Amino acid sequence: MFRFLCLILALYRCTAQLQIPDECNRYTEIPEVHRRGKNYVRSADEPHVNDYYLEEKWYGKDGYDMLTEAPKTTTACGTISPIYFKGTIPKNVGETVTDTACAVGWLSNCMHKISVTVKRCSDTLNIYYLRSTPVVFSAYCFGRLDNDRDIAPAPDYVANSVSVLVDIEWDDPENSSSKENIKFQKPQLVFKCTFFPIKEGLVYQVNWFVNNKFIMSKIAENKENLNELAIKEEQLKKKEIKKLGFVIKCSVKALAELNGLPGSAVHSAGFFAGIKVKTPKVVLQRGEETTISLVSTVPFGCIYYSLAKHPCRAFIETYYTLGTSCSSAAVVKDPQGMLKKPANRCRVVIQVTKFNETENGEKRNWTQEFQWTVSQTDNGVYKLQETYFKIKLRVSGADFDYLWSEYELDDIHVYVKDNTSSWQRKTCSAYCDPHMTTFDGTTYEMQKSGIYTFYKHKELPIEVQLETEKCVVGVPNAHCPCGVYIRSGADIFVVSTCPNHTFFNFWHCGDGALQVYRDGDKKFQIFLPTGAIVTVTLSYGYHINVAINAAPRDLNNVLGLCGDLSGKRDDDFVVDGIDYGNITKCGRFECRNEFIDLYAIKPEDRFFPLISENTNLTENLKTYNFSTCFCPADVKPDSNVGKSECSSNLFTQCSSPKQKQRMCLVKRTRKKRDVVDQLKKLQLHSLRISRALKRNKRSLVAQTISEEQARVICLAKFSKSNSFEYCQTNVPGIRNTKEVENCIFDLNVTGVTKWAEDALDAVTHQCIHEAEKNTTLQNTTIIEGGQSIADVIKEITCPNDCSDNGKCVNGTCHCKEGFGGSDCSFETLRPPVVHPDVGDNICDTADSTCDYVHIYGENFIDSPKLTCKNKVQKIGINGFTLNPSTVMRAQGEALSPFEVKCPTTGFRRRRETQNNSIVFFERHVISIANDGILFGIEKEIALIDSRCQVTSAVYNKYILKDGYCFIDGKCVQSGAHMEGDRREVCLPKNDTFKWTRIENVPPLVTEPCLMYRPLPDISKRSSTTLLSSLEETLNDFELVEGWYGTKGYNMPLTELTQSKSCGAMSGIWLQGALPARLNETTFGLACVTGWVEGCVAEMSVKIKSCSPSLNVYYLKPSDVMYSAYCFDVSTISRRTVKTTMETTVETNTVESTKDSDDSHSNNVGIIIGSIVAAFIVIVCLVVAVVIMIRRKTKSYSFLQKHFLQHLHRECHKKKEDDLKS
């Protein structure tokens, strides 16, 4: 019976907690009570106390009462119209009085009347039911209970060194306590007003101001309570201070006592709280970079658990309101250097202040510096269309923090100065044999063989190397460019027809900073990250011409055979203050050998090495962060994916040219050996192609042409060109004097008339470049009909003026019958030349899909008519063709005049013939036609799998390796079984081309049972292991997905009762069943235990039985931070003999016996339980009635006291009796 009384006591206590407390327990403290005294003198910087907006409710403060006499002045109580209470303050505890309060005015001590209710709560506490005042700048007056004595005069105290300091504290929110006393530590900023000296016996008052607006006043009654003068983030929030970026300051004054007269106030300087932009305005020279700087003046804190840290972070991100990613825009260098990762590049991480973090025992300096390198993307136009950009900044990722979240910083204004044109119309070139022209226009001859630095940037890892060789038979000193090797960071692109290393492709890749486009059959355009453009054109005799158009970033920043781009010619041959411009006679040529030798490159330093084993190449090719990021204005805060538009270039190319882009062939790998192997493979191709081309190379043989004849030929070539005539008339800087003289000289010396075309190409190249970059030429109002000069130039300019074999229509050559190619220089009446001995004769399906094969030769034309004819032959085991060849055709892709890519996927069939003969491999016999009709000689390529197929001694025949089967067109290793049927096994001794069937194969132990991982920290994962006993929490939030298991351990199948079990903040238990049989697989739900609920998150789990003592679990990372999967020692063992049916029967038998023994006791228990339930209901009704009576009468206090005391004594006595028994 006494137990029921104890239950009643517990019910009462629960019910009592639900009662609403009376007014004395729920009043609000009077705001700014220390400024409401009758003698308080308001400082000039203080606002008036104003109760005009006061919320109607109960107010009070222990030790303070409302004034009952009218103040002597209207400026008393910190306001203009003070209010006093005309009634009598109640004397007895519990007594309530309602009377009138009067507002003092200039003409009367009671100009306005207000009803005020006063209730006596204790000997030192009266509470007041106050309403908003009837007039503005009026306030209720309050003073201490001992306010009758004399007022203390103002002390002779003046504060020094008044300043604002910021700190961070971790407070416990009101609801921080939860299950097992786990608490959150929430950070908040604290601003402290520091001053000197601090004297004993004074009261200090600090007034706080934000953006010169008064916020609140603080009082410290002694020097031990100076921390009460600080203002916290929560208090700022209540004052509608929503975001950082404000200026906060304080003023200090002292009083001899709390209600005394204040002394003089001293103000601090303003403290900027937020992230200060140190560079609000930057001026950027075109082609240069500058830095924007930010500094954080306050710490950024992070929420932590009391036992485990909760990770968080925030960012400062940039975005733009003016400028676009196209044409010209303000961009930032990738701040983290992480272009290859999917993070947003328009942001930097704010350093987090951790809980209780110190540095050398002291709180560390909160100041954080942030910097971005800002530049301006440049599309190379001569006159910038946009020279002003606004960069906006904001904080993202701090949603949990009131002041930091979406905090917008001050704008940064970027002005771009375009005050120089020294880089415009500057082209460095090497044409014909070769005539060299520096960026500043100085010309000279180069008649030497070797490799040279043609162009090199002084600040960036960008370089162009030029290789030359002898090129005219009969003229010993005549040399021509044959190779250009372009490097940017870890990227190298090669155009080479030099002896022994002909190549047209990427040789190495690592940055993706080179953009390469092929324009027709003979021209490549390579865009450097700076915006400079390298144009490489194949010339007659398979030699090349090179031209580099400068970009703004090249100004005073380049060296090499192109000279120093400075705008002055007299320093082109000056290097480090020494003039290397001496002229040397090279036969009939005037050379600058001293200057040329200065930039000669050793063979081991060339970018395109002759020796593949030169591993020094890959070691020196370090990647470089060229990447820049444009940050669009429409990005929403906290957007993470795909918002920053990043590029590996420092220039802008808004739309890709019409040319075909050449992608990288050699991928960068981690292993040096892999790179060397790729280089060897490409070197082999290069050598084979070079030897074939060398046998068929068009030799340039010297002929006799007089100077006058040469002049006639050259002038005729230029005068027949419509594009040249138009450019010379309408485009500034286009003249033919230099090119015509070079043409005449070359023809007179060598007799090679084809070089007249190269001289003309040098002029038209510069003309087209001007049309693209000179915005004046793009003005559509210059010519009637809405066309611009640039439009006309693009329409009438074609490569090589179509070689006199076609007509130029809208910039494209329409060739005469029998001619083809982008410049109509190829003869289509004869098929292209294929070199059968060049390239591999096999395609290994073990290394690639073999969807395409490469055919090498000459005179391949890049056109839609380029056709690959493929005869597909199915070859049997004995090497004979099984059936007639299948002939199919498909369009090929000309990668260069020397290489075609032909598809095989449309021709490949299942490896089985109509007579069910086994197809061992396929042979593709391929020929090429430029016009789809005239096919050249054929090349055979076999598609094999090198894992099991090797070349035999017989030509073009392949055999099967020992230890392998070849089944259904696939290599199968000896002992391997058919997928899905373990009885079918590869046994080469029985049959190399069919499965061998084996009966009575033992059951397979599946892969999870062999490949599982042991559970980490298994000893800590017990459901009885509490977190408080561990040094650090387990965290399966970062678990690697996969199979896990440990013999003798299984996940618990019952709900956990404690949240801190299993060595983590939240344990994870299994809702489901374990496998009952060997090799059985079951599925369940893993439940994360919460502080209130037993399953706050669910994750699917797969369980597989591997042995009687081992289950393996397929676990995924937990969805909840600092939770861990629980594993207990398992007491369940599977029986392999007794069946599940027998176990069930035995279990049912035992349970039925137990049920029959306990049936009588269960019936008695049901009757007693019903009586107890009825009794509890009656007691609850009685308690409810008593509570209602208590609200109406005071007599209940006596009843409550004695009734509860009696129950307590009886419960305690019963407990002692139980202990004794």
From TrEMBL:
Keyword Protein transport: no
Organism: Tegillarca granosa (Malaysian cockle)
TM spans (from-to): 1164-1189
Domain VWFD, residue spans: 426-609
Source taxonomy: Eukaryota, Metazoa, Spiralia, Lophotrochozoa, Mollusca
Keywords of this entry: Disulfide bond, Membrane, Signal, Transmembrane, Transmembrane helix
Pfam families listed in its UniProt record: VWD, Vwde
Record's protein name: VWFD domain-containing protein
Source organism superkingdom: Eukaryota
PROSITE patterns according to UniProt: EGF_1, EGF_2, VWFD
Keyword match Cytoplasm: no
Leader peptide range in chain numbering: 1-16
InterPro entries listed in its UniProt record: Dev_Signal_Modulators, EGF, Helical_Vwde, VWF_type-D
